[in-house]
Amino acid sequence: MIPWWQLDFAELVLERGKVGSITIAGLVSASGLSRQTVQRYLRNFEQAGLVVRSRVVEGRGRPKHHYKPTMKLARAVSKGLGEDKDKVLISFKALRRACKWCKGGFCKKKVKKCTPAICPIIKASREIM
Question: Is the pTM of this model over 0.90?
Answer without folding.
Answer: no
